[in-house]
Task: structure prediction
Amino acid sequence: MTDSSATPSTAASAGSPRFALSSHLTGWLMAAPLALVLTVFLVAPIVMIVVVSFWGATEFSIYPAFQFDNYEFLFGSDVTYRVFFNTLKYAAITWVFALLIGFTVAYFLAFHVRTQTWQIALFLLCTIPFWTSNIIRMISWIPFLGRNGLANSTLISWGVIDEPLEWLLFSDFSVILAFVHLYTLFMVVPIFNTMMRIDKSLIEAAADAGATGWQTLTHVIIPLTKPGIMIGTIFVVTLVMGDFITVRFMSGSQSANVGRMIQNDIGLLQYPSAAATAVILLVTVLMVIGLMLRFVDIRKEL
Amino acid sequence: MEPRPRSFYILAAFFTLFLIFLYGPTITIAILSFQGPTGGLTFPMKGTSFHWFRDLFEQQAVGDIWGSFSRSFLLGLMVMVTTVVVSVMGGLAFRKRFAGSSVLFYLIITSLVIPSILISLGVGLIWSQSGLTVHWSTSGFGAQLTWTLPFGLLIMFAVFNRFDASYEEAARDLGATPWQTLRHVVLPIIAPSLIGVALFGFTLSYDEFARTLLTSGSHNTLPLEIFGMTTNVTSPVIFALGTLTTLFSFVVIAVFLGVVWLTDRRRKAKGSDAGKGLV
Result:
């Protein structure tokens, strides 16, 4: 990850036309297991959801049909728009905080930590929580934010407040706090990765040309870090938009986002309605991603 | 060395705060899981004890935790092995363009960014409509692969983007068959990254929640079990469980890092210059 000699090795014997078919064939054979998994567990489920979104449902069962009832109901309801707005709001606010924190952390690691051993050690320290359970990390906030939690009792003992703050837990605040806590890492990693590939002599050149630290940051480092920022953004935005568990848990079921709406329908066995909402969510997410991919070629940035 | 600028200290302080933010809550519940028998979910501590850890070993107090742990562990291993094998094959395939490779590439990205609940819902619907029973080892296993494979493949892409093809040419020039080249040249060079892929495969599966929710059937995996507990358990036993699973994750990470370190040392001791370039 810290290696800067990124030479794409696609030049590895493209082969003469005579071998073209056989090279396609090996490619297909090697990619077959991957294609199989993605077909059965990604493409088929998406197709299934789209199909079921046109079905009808009774209280107990669902039946095949081709009707637009589910969509009509969704687009005709105020709740849908409010919930989608709420989802985008969570995504936007989380993104801002994740970006600010993630960029600062990555910048510190890449440009202020001097030895590579320390860089790797501190980087690993940041990534370890990623490999532990999200649910546990969410639960961990309760003794912190609760009515009698650490935050409230500390603030009271300092005399900052007299009454415990009620909005610390089971509120939009705690939802966004948990999102930032869980997903900032997804911003740190790609940004750190691109920063490590920036040629250090460019920074020196900027300094030699009389740029201040701030000017170097805004005119050299940020533009060169854009691909990493975009990849991190894609991660954070899609994770937050597709989430249902953090919102349910941290808002104490008081706030809703699209994921919660889908989960509610599933709980009521209203699968066609859940499927229709899921289709709209997927389209929204893909539109956001499509927009971002216009700014960055992921394949080149790995 | 020139003296550190003032910005270093400000950023270092920020970084420290970030680490406290990352680890603080986990450390809090680790402390609270040693709560005395009469203690509650928050501070103050009413004495210290192993009471809540002992509770974990009593079946009726907490439900089927050990069953779900062993299922999660087994599933993690299954997903890990599959992820490594499929990612390596996929990574090798993508070194050359083949018809359909860009479609497959966008599918991988889709698999990564698609909201997990869609996979859960879609797989669940397919299974129920075709009269099958969802089970963690079939539908759950496949649903988790859609989460672990993109990570494995992205690592493999990054590895092969930096891979020096002249090693393979050298092997070919010396008369190695493609299989020998793969077995004795390519795989040893990429071995350390494979450990990384395995780590991703295991831990992402072991902690996976959303994609397993509707696809694991009546036998819960550990994250599902823990989530169930959050709605009906109001004692520090849940913190004890959280502490134990987090500890387990740390052990897993440490084992993987240890393996990386050991293979690296063995390689140096054997004096092989594989992957080092010609000096």
Remarks:
- The CA atoms of residues 191 and 228 of chain A lie 4 Å apart.
